[in-house]
Amino acid sequence: MAQTTPKISVIVPVYKAEETLDACVNSILAQTLEDFELLLIDDESPDRCPELCDAWAARDPRIRALHPSKAGPGPSGARNAGLDAARGKWITMVDSDDTVAPDLFAALYYAANQSGADLVLCNCCRVQQDGTLMPLPQEQCFPVDTILSEEQFWDAFGTPWINQFTGTAHRLYAAKLFDGVRYPLGMLHEDYYVLPDLIARCGIIQCLAYTGYYVLQHEGSITATARQEVRLAMTRGDIHRAEYFLSRGWHDRAEGALTDAAEFLYRNKAAYDLRKPGHRAEFAFVKGELCRVYGGLAAQKGARSLKLRAAALRWGLPVFHAYRALLAARHG
C-alpha cells in the first residue's frame, strides 16, 4: 500500500508517562481535524510506556510507535527520531503529560493556510494535577491574532510573550523549517537553542489569541525544575541567539543577548557547583563561547566600549559585571 501524506505529523516523546499518556493520546485522537499521523516516540522509558505505545499503535492506523536508542538526557533524541520519520507537510509536538483541545490542530492548520505563515503559535494554559486550570497572566498571552515578520518576532521576544514563544508545543511548524535542523543531543531547553534556526527560515509567524494546549504541572517536569544543566542550557541558547543576530548584522540585539548570557552566568555561578569536574568543564566551555562571540561582536561593530567589555569578560565575570555597572553609573 502506498504511503499517504497526512496534513500534520504529531510528535510525542514518551518518557515515564504511564499515568498521563492515555489522556494525552485520547485528546489527540479527539481532534476535529482527523488527517494526521501520531508518532509515539519511546525514549527508552523504564516503565510500561514502551508497551503502551505499541498498544496504541495497534488500535489506530494513524499511530506509529517508534523505539529509538536514547541519545542522552532530555527529549532531543526522541524529537529528532520523530522528525526523521514524519511524513506530514506540517509538524506539531505534544508532551506526553499534556493534553490538547479538540479543535487545536484545526485552528492552527487553517490559520496557517489562510495567512501563509510558516509557524503558527497559540496560547497555552497550565493545569494542576487535580485538574485546576492556571491561566497565564494576561500580559503573557496573545490578546489578538497577530502576524509577525522575523524582526518583529525578536522585538516581541523581549516582552512577556517570551513565555509563549519558547517551547516546542502549542504551535504548528511547516515541515520545511526542519530541513537540516535538528535538536542538539544531551541538552536541556534544546527548544530555546534551536529557536533562532527556525525563525530564520520563517517568512511569516502568526500568533493566535486562542488557547488550545494544556500543560500539566508536576514536580517531575523539567519546566518545574531549576538545575545546573538548565541554567547553562539557557545561557548557551542566548549565545547561539547572539550569533544568529550577528549573522543578520543586528548588533544591538546581539549585544543584548550576550549581556543577558553574561549576567545570567554571573548571577548563577554559585549554583553551578564548580567543585565537580564535569560542571567546571561545562561552565568553562560556555564562558569561553561567550567570550568568543562577544569578541566577534566587538570586531564587527568596532566600538571601543565593546572592545573594552570583551576584554573585561575575558578577565572574568566579576570584572565584566563591575565594568558594566561603572558604565551605567556614568550614564545614569
Concise summary:
With 332 residues, the chain is of the alpha/beta class.
Overview of this structure, please?
The structure is a single chain. This protein folds into two domains: 8-224, Spore Coat Polysaccharide Biosynthesis Protein SpsA, Chain A (Alpha-Beta Complex); 228-331, no CATH class. The radius of gyration is 21 Å and the shape is globular. 47% of the residues lie in helices and 17% in strands. The termini are far apart. It has helices at 21-29, 49-59, 76-85, 104-115, 150-157, 162-165, 190-199, 228-248, 251-268, 277-301, 304-315, 317-331, and strands at residues 8-14, 36-42, 63-66, 90-93, 99-100, 119-127, 133-135, 146-148, 171-174, 205-216. It is of the alpha/beta class. Strands 1, 2, 3, 4, 5, 6, 7, 8, 9 and 10 form a ten-stranded mixed beta sheet that branches. It contains twelve helices and ten strands.
- How many helices in DSSP terms? 12
What is the CA–CA distance across the termini? Answer: 71 Å
Helix percent reads: 40-55%
Number of strands: 10
- Average pLDDT rating: 88
What's the shape? globular
Overall number of structural domains: 2
The CATH H-level superfamily of the largest domain is Spore Coat Polysaccharide Biosynthesis Protein SpsA, Chain A
CATH architecture of the largest domain: Alpha-Beta Complex
Structural class: alpha/beta
- Rg (CA only): 21 Å
Q: Which fold name fills CATH's third level, the topology of the largest domain?
A: Spore Coat Polysaccharide Biosynthesis Protein SpsA, Chain A
Major beta sheet summary: 10 strands, mixed
What percentage of amino acids are in beta strands? Answer: 15-25%
GO molecular function, one term: glycosyltransferase activity
InterPro entries: Glyco_trans_2-like, Nucleotide-diphossugar_trans
EC number: 2.4.-.-
Enzyme class: transferase
